[in-house]
Amino acid sequence: MEEQFILRVPPSIAERIERLLNENSSSSEDKSLDLSFSEDGRSGTFVIGNDHFPASLLDLPCVLESYKTYDDSVLIKTADIGQMIMVREEGDTAPDVVEYRHGLTPPMRDARKRRFRREPDLNPELVRRVEKDLLNIMAGGTAENVDILVLLTSLLLLNKKKKKV
Predict the structure, then answer these.
(1) Does the model's pTM come out above 0.90?
(2) Over 41-54, what HEC string results?
């Protein structure tokens, strides 16, 4: 398996990258590509030639698979892609979130909100109490002040939450 990511650039930068990759001669003004990130690991700079563009590392809402073929008939999976590097023009604002809201294609617009279940509202104190009781039960003890119905309901909720992750 290879390590891969999606590189999303504005159309003007895409033309320059394509020109750089297609030309064999060294007469191009864009002679180099560079990508470097700051200490936070999420923001960085994309350099093409002498021009610097801001870049951000974003998590995609779902995992993508990439494939390659050697004989135009058999596809071989090469990687699972979960992140995208988004290069912006100089004046564009940086995204304030870590996860990109949309997928790569129009049907995946606002994918996290439209296609995935919402997190259940669980009381953190109830979860801590049930976890403590479960650890006591597994150690050979008994649960403290617990109604069996509440315990079973809590176990079912925790089990569903673990399966979803």
Answers:
(1) no
(2) CCEEEEEECCEEEE
